[in-house]
Amino acid sequence: MNPFVRCLLVTAAIQAATATVAVTGAYANDDIMKNQKDPANWALQLGNYAGQRYSTLDQITPSNVKNLRPVWQFSTGVLRGHEGGPIVVGDTMYISTPFPNIVYALDLNDNGRIKWKYEPKQDSSVIPVMCCDTVTRGVAVAGNKLFLGQADNTLVALDTETGKVLWSAKNGDATKGETLTAAPLVVKDKVYVGISGGEFGVRGHLTAYDINTGKQVWRAYSTGPDKDVMIDPQKTMMLGKPIGEPDLGIKTWPADQWKIGGGTTWGWYTYDPDLNLIYYGTGNPGTWNPAQRAVDKDRAKSDNKWSMTIFARDADTGQAKWVFQKTPFDEWDYDGVNENILADVTVGGTKHKALINFDRNGFAYTIDRTNGELLVAQKYDPSVNWASEIDMKTGRPKVNDKYSTFAQGEDHNTTGICPAALGSKDQQPASYSPDSGLLYVPTNHICMDYEPFKVEYSAGQPYVGATLSMYPAPNSHGGMGNFIAWDPAAGKIVWSKPERFAVWSGALSTKGGVGFYGTLEGYLKAFDLKDGKDLYNFKTSSGIIGNVNTYMHKGKQYIAVLSGVGGWAGIGLAAGLTGEQEGLGAVGAHKALGEYTQLGGTLTVFALPDNQ
User: What is the pTM of this model?
Assistant: First the structure.
């Protein structure tokens, strides 16, 4: 072939491939942007890229919500914890189940008739390495593709019309304790997914895959050298300034402990299209025994970076724009994976592109999401005692040695620590209303005793190193949960509602002035956004740890939620555990839960009567 002709053909092929990627990438991103702006849909697990879990639908109001009623139900066929929630795009609802991670496409024109069903064949040996139930936090939909992270670390892309597998990619190794529970996020031509397994000595990471081929594009680790973590110490910001010192992901760990250091990424991911930044948090360092993670027995040298950290990364390259470590040298299992909600917040008279994070450690942070500057950090549960406050200059908590499991030492049972390892809030996502400027937050109100002990690492075996007991916060209302409204600018609770058990369901707020959440007993509850007044409740078939969503179909607003008790809070019922310290301490705290609900797996859809 003539060399000139060959050159033209090669050039044309490259241009065609580039054009295909560009068009497909733009389509995927534009499709999500379009779908999330249409209030008839519930296009992302967190409602929108900002993670606000807010809807502009307003048919349901404080005056008529009392007339809400269930209009149809669907059994998932699985009896474990149902986290996450339905995705609705057009006339189709997509839901996923706990292991074995069945996906259903349901026809909204026919009360949930099954359009297709995907049931992966997974090895059940993955179940024992799922520390806190066999949950998944849902699927992502972009264009003609649905993305699911399976428990066995398989990321799959399915055709939204048929359920056919388009491609699959292996994201981890269950024999090492790695699993996959997070909901994927799609941005442009990439789908992002994390990794679970912090209690097995897993090294956390966030990975980007090409949405068309499943090929890995980049992987950013949570621990280790800067090149692995994708940090540039001269450019990556911390508290508004460059980090400066290189390889803190190694230096703040003893020897090679960072290689089994946890920092898993099993929570939620949000995205700012204007800044092109992805935000997510990393989990606890391994092991739960802090003495084994101390450098020269010195807490000050032992931040165990970059566990317990909020990352802001360039969505295209994965490079870290800024970092903020919330609980350096974590001594309490205050996993840092909770959602990062994006909103514009005025603090001290200045309007900020902000990020709000309710950390497991009991502090709520308002951060400038452009550069990581700390704006507000206050307790959102009055029982928090492990630290007195956050130093606003350094971002570091002022630790109370009385409740420091490191200061008290190995094999010593430190009592009365608040919050418990469950945190003042776990992964159950909060909601932000731009109408009120407030966040509506499902919280836990639980304290603990914590005894660390030495543990040896063995791949695929539990790597915990602590014994825990949990109980309701003393000298309080006697329950183990509160549902609160929070002012992110002032850092204050506006109102608070007590609950019998930890509130493990994601919240929803709406333009109609009504909010929703679920309880571990199984109640769907509606409340007035202004004052938290109870407006409606309905007891579903099982405890609710799923996230309440809303959508519109044929001109009518619907509320949808998955029931199915489980998760960490409900692991006793889900896994048949009865020992006080089983389930990493959660079983004893929630031992009475079985008096109020039992296992289930049901989608319930609510609406107002036709004449409303």
Answer: 0.95
